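Q: What changes when flavin mononucleotide is included in the input?
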Amino acid sequence: MVMTDEMMEIIESSRAYVATATTNGVPNVVPIGFIKPLDNKTVLIADSYMVKSRANLEANPKLAFVVQDAAKYPYQFKGSVEIFESGEYFDQVVEWVKETNPLAPKPKAAILITIEEVYSVKVGDAGKKIA
Ligand SMILES: Cc1cc2nc3c(=O)[nH]c(=O)nc-3n(C[C@H](O)[C@H](O)[C@H](O)COP(=O)(O)O)c2cc1C
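A: The predicted holo structure follows.
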């Protein structure tokens, strides 16, 4: 799956609502500000505050998200995650958060998402797989 330039631009510039689930299917959704694409297949999240989301991802490394303005950008992204508490991706989120807000706490982890599927949530073709 490859994201379009428009998809990458809107992820870069927008908040997202990120859904995870426990292994027995209890859903959880949170707003996330520190989310950005690294390339057309991967998206990075700074985990600074995740509790249930993080526990869910440790046990069930799958998530889905939509961007805040889903009326204008009606995409539902789904992917698998890897969690890094050190190394290149971790250093990248630490620097990113520090540059954006020097008063923000140091992130606990980098969450790297490999995008696997994108669906439309647009009224009319809602639910259609688009990539
Ligand atoms: C506007 C907004 C932006 C947020 N951005 C982030 C973020 O970038 N990273 C993060 O770890 N938590 C962020 N949070 C906190 C999470 O939404 C949430 O409170 C946290 O993951 C704990 O919830 P959980 O136990 O369901 O994971 C943000 C919260 C709000 C209200």
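Observations recorded in class: The chain has one domain: 5-120.
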